[in-house]
Amino acid sequence: MKPFAATVISLSLVSSVCAQTDQSRPKSDSSSTQAPGLESIKILRSGSQSAERGAAEMFSGVVHVAPLFEASAPGRARGALVTFDPGARTAWHTHPLGQVLIVTAGVGRVQRWGDPVDEIRKGDVVWIPAGQKHWHGAATNSSMAHIAIVEALDGKSVEWMEAVDDLHYNAPVRAQLPATNAPGAEARPSQKAIGDFSPKLAELTDNVLYGDVWERPELSKRDRSLVTVAALIALNRPEQLRSHLTRARDNGVTEEELIETITHLAFYSGWPNAVTAIGVAKEIFERK
Length: 288
Fold this sequence. Notes:
The protein has helices spanning 3-24, 166-169, 189-194, 199-210, 221-234, 238-250, 255-269, 271-287, and strands spanning 52-53, 59-60, 63-70, 77-84, 89-90, 93-94, 99-112, 118-121, 125-128, 134-138, 144-151, 159-160. By secondary structure, the chain is an alpha+beta fold. The strands form three sheets. Strands 1, 3, 4, 7, 8, 9, 10 and 11 form an eight-stranded antiparallel β-sheet that branches. The termini are far apart.
């Protein structure tokens, strides 16, 4: 073979290989990173969705509904943040594909037709099966908020029924095992302190005081701690103050703020009370 012909053949082979390699290599231009027709990620910023008063045919009492998301096909889930004033609740209703409730604040109630009423609290997740007649709402003495998630079947996600009467709403709440009975769960504060000696007082303290009053959304836990600490200083209750100073720090009150609270109260609750309180605080703060 002549040298010139051999060179031409070699160049042709190199060009062919390079072309194949270039076709298999991922494109670096931005137009290839997103296939045409696909939707982009959407972010709905906090506060961008306004709440509206719940309709009277669907709710009893004051209820506000703030839409959170609405899926587009092929998705079919939708979600809303629903806030109930004390005593407010939904009407009886069903969901063709069920419903998930995520309690975000307060204390509430939920009931399936024919079952006792169950209490629900912040952090609880409730699954309501498809087609089950039920209602949910706030407790009599506490507001409640939850995120409600449902899916639509043939374009329909809920069927509303009659209002929940006072007889059903005020029915006794079903007794439930305390969370401390779960394997490996840590006993709640009052159960640790007095549960073996006075179980009912421990239950009321944990469920009503700490479970209900301290979870009410109208005051932050930080503000509740400041009020509680101030009251215990004024009443000269050093033993209760000891635990509540620790709780106050856990709830975001600083040492400086607690010391200033004690100093301020010396002029209103008495110098001896303040001196006793500062001794307890010194003990707690040095132990951290």
